[in-house]
Amino acid sequence: MNALNHAWNTAFWGHTFYEWDEIVVPNALSEERERGETDNQGISLDYRRFMSDQLLACYYKEYEAIKTYTPNLPVTTNFMGTYEGIDYFQWAPYLDVVSWDNYPGMETPPSETAMTHDLMRGLKQGQPFMLMEQTPSQQNWQPYNSLKRPGVMRMWSYQAVAHGADTVQFFQLRRSPGATEKFHGAVIEHAGHEHTRVFRESAALGEELQKLGDVLTDSTSRARAAILYDWETRWAAELSSGPSVEIDYVQEVHAYYRAFFDQHIPVDIVHPEQDWSGYDIVIAPMMYMVKEAWAKRVESFTAQGGTFVTTYFSGVADESDRVHLGGYPGPLRKVLGIWVEEIDALPPAYTNTAAVTLPVGQLKGAYECRYLFDLLHSEGAEVVAVYENDFYAGMPVITKNQFGKGEAWYIASHMESQALHDLIATITEGKNISPLVPWASEGVEAAERVKNGEQYLFLLNHSRVPAQAELNGRYTDLLTDELLAFHCNLEKNDARILRKEHKE
Questions:
Q1: Element (DSSP H or E) covering residue 310
Q2: Which residues pair with 413 in a beta bridge?
Q3: In terms of domains, do 246 and 274 share one?
Q4: Residues 311 and 405 reside in one and the same domain
Q5: N or C: which end of the chain has fewer CB within 10 A?
Q6: How many structural domains are present in the chain?
Q7: Do residues 327 and 340 lie in contact, with contact meaning Cβ atoms separated by under 8 Å?
Q8: Shared-domain flag, residues 137 and 114
Q9: Distances from the Cα of 436 to the Cαs of 159, 207, 266, 291, 458, in angstroms?
């Protein structure tokens, strides 16, 4: 009991436990209220771990029962992207293949869907996954269930393949005549026959995938940069009582992911305990919870020549949500060469400006920042940018610290997208990492898979107008056999799969 009381800091507000049966499920009569607000984050954090583990135990009993009768058949269960309640990294070892249900809305940023695909691929660190569910037309549970415009279903299907899917499947085959999903899309509509736009598009996609299957199946993605994602850190950060209701772990991860996406630079999503040895750059947005072993990995990675980037609200607490005393960012303080004295939190309408005082790479000028503002001091780190406003004007907001053969960056506030674009351009150029395409029209996504020495470039036009992309050499379109030299045209909502030609 002493260890538990220490981990949960139960002495605060007289929560000390003396018997195990005094511990109850967090609820409105104990620690936790509506909307996830809690008076004891340690208890609520461990409860989320417990629930994820219990659901996993139930799944594994089902897994074993199935394997008893069909030992050679793969077993999976369909995940739901960034769903909050289950730690998918803990589940992944017990799935023969990862699968998930992709249901973006009409206004979901393409980068957000791409990030979630990469997260699913990252659960088994690069193993292809299954697109278990998508609708061929519309959903039924969103406020406005828009139809997928002509070509969008095909394009979104290829987006999944581009990011590691080896299957493209639909829910559902036929629209139900009743109950809650009767208006959820299907390959066969309520009309009951094949003479529909949705059926024609589904059949045409099936014919294309049949042609591509042997070529692309088991191909992998490759990236020299990675973003860390951890469900436990998300739980801990978002359960925090303060400093701001604007804390949103997934959106902070997405902000950094989008900076890679918009520049056509591949990036993997991995867990802090997975293998980082193949990466030159590791980004850890809002790494609120830092275990001592993770900090050692960061130091080792950076000392050996890696570039490490982390942000405000990082290194604050340990795995029990007890604050690392001695100054934030706790065990990351040495590698970052800084310490944080205070954290200011302002409503979204209030902003500050990060003015670059030490131009590095693409970082220059001034950038808007908001939400949280770390007031930090350098302990050897170079000050790249400072706040321009408020009583902490002149204090560092972007720092870079040389550590061994590598460098560690700290971003002390939520930065506008241009700042992250310029930061990612700077650190990737420093590692000689080039985009997949030299240039593309706005709205064009580029992704790559490789197999047996062959490179396959996916170009997806998410805009509603024709687009173009420049190419690094000559490619052959796998669906049309067209030979493309240094240039590619795309129709609106188009997807093209190109094989790199090695003979110029």
A1: strand 307-311
A2: 373
A3: yes
A4: yes
A5: C
A6: 3
A7: yes
A8: yes
A9: 15, 28, 8, 35, 10
Domain with residue 490: its CATH number is 2.60.40.1180
C-alpha 239/C-alpha 86 separation (Å) is 15
Of 185, 216, 247, which residue is a domain's last? 216
Q: What is the pLDDT along the chain (504 residues), one digit of tens a residue?
A: 999 999 999 999 988 999 999 999 988 888 888 777 898 999 999 999 999 999 999 999 999 999 999 999 999 999 999 999 999 999 999 999 999 999 999 999 999 999 999 999 999 999 999 999 999 999 999 899 999 999 999 999 999 999 999 999 999 999 999 999 999 999 999 999 999 999 999 999 999 999 999 999 999 999 999 999 999 999 999 999 899 999 999 999 999 999 999 999 999 999 999 999 999 999 999 999 999 999 999 999 999 999 999 999 999 999 999 999 999 999 999 999 999 999 999 999 999 999 999 999 999 999 999 999 999 999 999 999 999 999 999 999 999 999 999 999 999 999 999 999 999 999 999 999 999 999 999 999 999 999 999 999 999 999 999 999 999 999 999 999 999 999 999 999 999 999 999 865
Residues 417 and 454 in one domain: no
| Contact criterion met (CB below 8 Å) for 53 and 251 | no
Are 485 and 419 members of one domain? no
DSSP string for 386-420:
EE-SSTTTTSEEEEEEEETTEEEEEE-EEE-HHHH
